[in-house]
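User: tokens in, sequence out, please.
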């Protein structure tokens, strides 16, 4: 039960706790963003760079996947977008001299914050077997090393290719082609740990794994649920949209165990000439018990059913249920309604932790709305029963015909800025056969059809010695994945790990027997190739595809773009000495693709629906929106051609006596495993991150005191996992529900504790006990 998590150099002596804030953004946010930008980039570079964020001819902000409006403000960024940009456009550098001065063992003792603060990677680096330090390596040697390792595999399935969600469409497309050309579908991605549950539930029920609403829908909805999401920190630009919706008369219901500052009250500094205008965003705050959302939505379904029986109606209809929609566009309603009748109100109250009055009042909100949207993020996707929970969300929307009509629909709010686009491009371990057919046709080869490993399966395979080669296209696998120590040992079991990265992180330090760091261009930087400066494309959370073009001088002259790295490796692997394609490999001219990304877009257009006239349409400011059958035409690409109601057993988390259910979440000063600073201003945490938020009732009942230092011990199937030295902070959270930051607590998340169907690690429900430190 030992914890090897890096802690020697962790200094939490400055940790202080103040009262949490009840409102978000405002002047301190802008000041804070500028402070970090100036420190990292200097004043002139800061202003130049920030002015180009999300502009029509600028680069897409890598902060999140929230869409941009066609009409943009001069400064279309938020505090956290500015931090993301500063982190990439920093002037600090991690050079070969840096690696000569710091052994891997030394670097391993540093925390994520310190590593990130060192700056941008400048040279390809190599760590040989048994070596203590990384040394510089030529690009060509690096490609040869990878190709050699890949050629020597007993089976292509001994290789694993991870993707984080920042990768552009162009890079993602050539990457999946490389991987399928090698002969495997081992394409785990960050989505497996993120919105996979949304995809699983939505594909099954509405036939497409993407959200069905546009910004305009959101701004004209009459009722919006924001469930399991903290937009004030993670999608700050969403607050502006909610503010507009509110001005147009929408009611906003927030469902969260924590009273998150931005959700409750929002002051928008971009609003009117410097004046702060405050909005109480949330009408109803439902402080739900962790994992209680399925119960709530079943309760709402029941309430609508009872109202229907009582002869009431939804605005615009004669009845509560939209019978025309249900008859013409759905199947399975009887099964669902029968199921609801069996569920008892006592169970719903017990599971949700809400009162009957609260649930009824929310039911009344639904009865008063003619257009309802449900938005959600990680609070709904990272539980064991996340997929049935989301199916129950869809059920409630279907009852009133809230799919495929203006102002209504499902809105899974994506994380990484191009995570949705990467999936569209084929980054998925189990793409449908139609995709494979078209890929094979376009490139005249036979792609492998057997499903590959997702993230958790990849870790198990590495642990079990079945993998020799691991490549990470961005991201920070070892820190993002569950069960940190198991994942670290799993990676150590491989022969070669390769990380394509912009910044130093722990995945460069938890390596296979040999390791490569391949430094790459970021989104802010000019991408000059033989045919000229390149643009790339991305897809946002609402299926809009648009171009992104970096302007800054690259962090070093030795960087290769992600597209170039993939194409150079593919060229080495798939062509003979004369440059002719080897048999059974994709027919692609890799060097031309590298030199001119518009040729990559031509292939994308040929393989994937919705990309007709790709090149012309990205020249149009704001790009274009991909087809979405339920949204566009109430058409459902399911086996029956209709949307599916489902009857789902009510599940919820049963917390054993003396234990807590821990959710692992983000602070205001981090981007996933990148830590910008040690404050979580809105929650009143300053100068440190090793805190555990617990209700005062639990602190008293379990015999601890506010401010006490404890160890966290997770318990799963008889195995205990330990994270040491956390300070208890008394906080407003339902009894039994605790919270602490990711990735420090990933040591506690068991590898085998995953959501049913989607396989997503249950990062929001880890059963723990606290022990006095
Ligand atoms: N600045 C910044 N922006 C980001 C990121 C970042 O790290 N920093 N990460 C990006 C990524 S990849 C993603 S996926 C998104 C993540 O965006 P979020 O999902 O907002 O991120 P989390 O911090 O995981 O917050 C989860 C929220 O769900 C609540 N919650 C936890 N359990 C439950 C539950 O059982 N029920 C309900 N109803 N609520 C629950 C938590 O209290 C918290 O408010 O943000 C993206 N944007
Ligand atoms: N316990 C717990 N675990 C979680 C979560 C949780 O809520 N709780 N959330 C999960 C979620 S939602 C997600 S999405 C994953 C995130 O998992 P990842 O996407 O793997 O992690 P990030 O921290 O976003 O990756 C940061 C690294 O990406 C690299 N990088 C940044 N920009 C670029 C670029 O432009 N190109 C390239 N090649 N590299 C770049 C940098 O080197 C940086 O160190 O974590 C998951 N893990
Ligand atoms: Mo994510």
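Assistant: Sequence out:
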């Amino acid at each position: 039960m030992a914890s090897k998590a890096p802690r020697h150099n962790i200094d939490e002596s400055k940790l202080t706790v103040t009262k949490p804030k009840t409102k978000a953004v405002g002047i301190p946010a802008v000041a804070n963003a500028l402070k970090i930008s100036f420190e990292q980039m200097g004043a002139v570079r800061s202003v130049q760079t920030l002015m180009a964020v999300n502009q029509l001819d600028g680069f897409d902000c890598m902060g999140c996947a929230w869409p941009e409006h066609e009409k943009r403000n001069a400064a279309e960024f938020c505090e956290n977008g500015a931090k993301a940009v500063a982190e990439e456009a920093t002037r600090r550098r991690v050079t070969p001299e840096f690696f000569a001065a710091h052994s891997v063992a030394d670097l391993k003792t540093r925390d994520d914050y310190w590593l990130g603060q060192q700056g941008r990677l400048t040279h390809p680096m190599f760590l040989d077997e048994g070596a203590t330090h990384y040394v510089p390596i030529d690009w060509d040697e690096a490609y040869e090393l990878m190709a050699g390792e890949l050629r020597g595999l007993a089976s292509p399935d001994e290789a694993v290719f991870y993707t984080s969600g920042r990768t552009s469409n162009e890079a993602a497309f050539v990457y999946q082609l490389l991987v399928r050309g090698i002969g495997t579908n081992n394409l785990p991605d960050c989505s497996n740990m993120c919105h996979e549950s949304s995809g699983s539930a939505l594909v099954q029920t509405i036939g497409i794994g993407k959200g069905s609403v546009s910004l305009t829908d959101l701004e004209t909805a009459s009722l919006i649920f924001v469930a399991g999401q903290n937009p004030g920190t993670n999608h700050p630009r969403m607050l502006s949209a909610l503010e507009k919706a509110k001005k147009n008369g929408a009611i906003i219901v927030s469902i969260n165990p924590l009273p998150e500052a931005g959700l409750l009250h929002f002051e928008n500094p971009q609003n009117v000439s410097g004046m702060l205008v405050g909005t109480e965003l949330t009408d109803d705050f439902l402080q739900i018990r962790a994992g209680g959302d399925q119960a709530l939505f079943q309760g709402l379904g029941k309430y609508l059913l009872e109202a229907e029986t009582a002869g009431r109606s939804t605005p615009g209809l004669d009845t509560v249920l939209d019978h025309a929609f249900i008859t013409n566009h759905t199947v399975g309603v009887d099964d669902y309604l029968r199921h609801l009748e069996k569920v008892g109100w006592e169970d719903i109250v017990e599971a949700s932790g809400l009162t009957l009055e609260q649930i009824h009042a929310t039911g009344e909100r639904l009865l008063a709305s003619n257009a309802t949207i449900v938005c959600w993020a990680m609070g709904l996707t990272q539980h064991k029963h996340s997929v049935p929970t989301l199916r129950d969300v869809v059920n409630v929307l279907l009852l009133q015909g809230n799919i495929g009509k203006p102002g209504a629909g499902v809105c899974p709010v994506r994380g990484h800025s191009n995570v949705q686009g990467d999936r569209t491009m084929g980054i998925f371990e189990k793409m449908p056969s139609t995709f494979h057919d078209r890929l094979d046709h376009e490139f005249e080869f036979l792609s492998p059809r057997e499903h590959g490993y997702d993230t958790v399966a990849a870790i198990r395979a590495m642990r079990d010695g079945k993998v020799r080669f691991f490549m990470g296209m961005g991201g920070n696998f070892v820190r993002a994945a569950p069960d940190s120590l198991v994942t670290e040992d799993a990676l150590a079991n491989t022969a070669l790990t390769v990380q394509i990265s912009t910044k130093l992180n722990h995945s460069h330090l938890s390596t296979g027997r040999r390791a490569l760091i391949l430094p790459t261009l970021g989104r802010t930087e000019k991408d000059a190739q033989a045919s000229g400066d390149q643009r790339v494309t991305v897809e946002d959370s609402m299926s809009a595809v648009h171009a992104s073009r970096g302007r800054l001088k690259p962090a070093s002259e030795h960087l290769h773009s992600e597209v170039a790295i993939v194409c150079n490796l593919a060229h080495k692997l798939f062509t003979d000495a004369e440059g002719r394609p080897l048999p059974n490999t994709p027919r692609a001219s890799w060097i031309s693709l590298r030199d001119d990304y518009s040729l990559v877009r031509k292939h994308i257009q040929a393989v994937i629906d919705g990309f007709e006239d790709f090149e012309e349409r990205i020249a149009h400011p704001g790009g274009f929106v991909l087809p979405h059958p339920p949204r566009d035409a109430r058409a459902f690409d399911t086996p029956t051609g209709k949307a599916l109601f489902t009857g789902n057993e009510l599940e919820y988390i049963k917390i054993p006596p003396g234990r807590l259910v821990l959710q692992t979440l983000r602070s205001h000063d981090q981007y996933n495993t990148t830590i910008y600073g040690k404050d979580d201003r809105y929650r009143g945490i300053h100068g440190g991150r090793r805190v555990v938020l617990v209700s005062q009732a639990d602190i008293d009942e379990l015999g601890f005191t506010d401010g006490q230092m404890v160890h966290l011990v997770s318990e799963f199937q008889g195995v205990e996992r330990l994270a040491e030295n956390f300070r208890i902070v008394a906080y407003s959270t339902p009894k039994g529900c605790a919270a602490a930051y990711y990735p420090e607590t990933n040591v506690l998340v068991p590898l085998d504790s995953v959501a049913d169907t989607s396989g997503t690690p249950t990062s929001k429900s880890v059963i723990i006990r606290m022990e006095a430190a």
